[in-house]
Amino acid sequence: MATFLPPGIDSTNIVGFGTTGLVAVFPGTQKVIKFPHPEPDARARCEVEVEVYERLERSRKKESCSTILRYHGNSKYGITLEYAEIGSLREHLRTAGTPSTEFLLRWARQAAEALVFCYASAVLHGDINCSNFFLDGDQNLKLGDFAGSSIDNSPATICYSTTHQLPTLDSSSKSEDVIITKET
Hints:
This is non-specific serine/threonine protein kinase. The structure is a single chain. The protein is of the alpha+beta class and 184 residues long. It has one domain (11-183): Transferase(Phosphotransferase), domain 1, CATH 1.10.510. Helices cover 33% and strands 19% of the residues. The chain has helices at 40-62, 89-96, 101-120, 174-183, and strands at 14-17, 21-25, 31-36, 71-74, 79-82, 87-88, 123-124, 133-135, 141-143, 150-151. It has a five-stranded antiparallel beta sheet with strand order 1-2-3-5-4, with helices on one face. It has a three-stranded antiparallel beta sheet with strand order 6-8-9. It starts with 13 loop residues before the first strand and ends with a helix.
């Protein structure tokens, strides 16, 4: 089965891809749509991601958090999110080189704030790595890609990227999120 593009999106709008789906910029906006691959497993992970973003948005009403990608809703085509125009932290580090100490400290604080906010909302990310942190136009770090997350201690559908997996890891916990974050 081939992945189809939502209306108004063509291949020039695609800015990212992963195991769950593709991400494309809505032309003329500061929003992206993440739409799943057609496989049932990818669609199921997308449903988990919607549930996580909706929970985090409800939590934002009680406590402000700017370190998680903003959720703008979902449709039959996919999830609409804030556009982090610089892209993933991993890509940025590959192209821009070693960041200043100022940026490293800022990003460390922002990553910690994102994780604390998630844990307070009973969400465990499950795949913390530099590909799932994104930079906006002001180089602020934002956590995204919750397709493999655990909610209320449910089993995570993805247990960390293979390149970052601990040999003894067979489940997700806050400790593993912190260990993985430190190692990536």
